[in-house]
Design goal:
Layout: H1 3-21, H2 23-32, H3 45-58, H4 86-93, E1 100-105, E2 111-114, H5 115-120, E3 124-131, E4 137-146, H6 147-154, E5 162-167, E6 173-177, H7 178-181, E7 187-192, E8 195-196, E9 206-208, E10 221-227, H8 240-243
Parallel strand pairs: 1-10
Antiparallel strand pairs: 1-2, 3-4, 4-7, 5-6, 5-10, 7-8, 7-9
Helix pairs in contact: 1-2, 1-3, 2-3
The structure holds the ligand Nc1nc2c(c(=O)[nH]1)N[C@H]1C(S)=C(S)[C@@H](COP(=O)(O)O)O[C@H]1N2 and molybdenum atom.
């Protein structure tokens, strides 16, 4: 069966099943096609699964909207204060010269990158919208190395299904599936509006996932882990967000 007709079949099946016999049946169908998000047992239940499944089928390759330079918000504003963690302050005092991004898990060549190394790789800049679930948002230009490039360097294994990312702020960690990890707009971001990424916005390093809401864009990132299962991380729901009542998949 061609990809297109298969996709059409699944989509039609999902829609019909959801209408005919409820969301649980749609979730069973989605499971068969690997379309179940890790927090499917949460309060969002089958509805969340259906959102994830239909977005994955319909918009797998679509790009987040990019804006002209004239639309950049002035002044950009930060959501929250710089980390108070001693580790962070120590690194900041040395101009982040010792900041590292460790990449481990299901990779052929685990590695640790300095900011200088990350900046030496092919970069991408894009002017996109960062939308907080609480209603406010802004447009900025973000510069970084595509996460897909980093994953190529370390040799992510074919069994990989998710990339988990961790902040120096230990309460903040999250994950994306490979569709978002390999998405061309998903950036390991070190620059904003032509300068360095300000500390208020996650400098020196954050993940930008413009296809998802603000909270998936974790700031002060120090580690990435490639995995085929999210069960071992936290409560096994894929991120800290569902533990606090937010959906793991926050597609926009
Ligand atoms: N480490 C860390 N990452 C974080 C947060 C945070 O408090 N700490 N806040 C999240 C939320 S809720 C949003 S909306 C965005 C805000 O990004 P901004 O500070 O660039 O506006 O960052 C996300 N990433
Ligand atoms: Mo947010």
């Amino acid at each position: 069966m061609s990809n297109l007709s298969r996709r059409k079949l699944i989509t039609t099946g999902l829609t019909a099943t959801a209408g005919a016999s409820g969301l649980a049946a749609a979730a069973r169908l989605a499971d068969r096609y690997g379309l179940i998000p890790p927090d499917h047992g949460s309060i969002y239940g089958a509805g969340e699964t259906l959102t994830y499944a239909s977005q994955r089928l319909l918009t797998r390759h679509s790009l987040a909207r990019e804006f002209p330079r004239s639309q950049i918000s002035k002044p950009p504003f930060a959501n929250g204060r710089p980390p108070k963690d001693e580790d962070f302050k120590r690194l900041q005092a040395r101009g982040f010269a010792d900041w590292r991004l460790t990449v481990d898990g299901m990779v052929a060549r685990p590695a640790s990158f300095s900011l200088g190394e990350l900046r030496s790789y092919p970069s991408r800049s894009q002017i996109t919208h960062l939308a907080c679930e609480e209603g406010w948002s802004f447009i900025a230009e973000w510069t970084g190395v595509p996460l897909s490039h980093v994953l190529n360097i370390v040799g992510a294994l074919p069994q990989a299904r998710y990339v988990v990312y961790f902040s120096i702020q230990r309460r903040w960690w999250d994950s994306v599936d490979m569709a978002d990890a390999l998405h061309p707009q998903t950036l390991v971001t070190y620059g904003m509006n032509g300068g360095e990424l300000p500390v208020g916005h996650g400098g020196p390093l954050r993940l930008r996932v413009p296809r998802q809401l603000g909270y998936k864009n974790v700031k002060y990132v120090t580690r990435l882990t490639v995995t085929d299962s999210l069960k071992e991380f936290g409560k096994g729901l894929g991120s800290a967000a569902p533990e606090g009542g937010y959906a793991w998949y926050a597609g926009i």
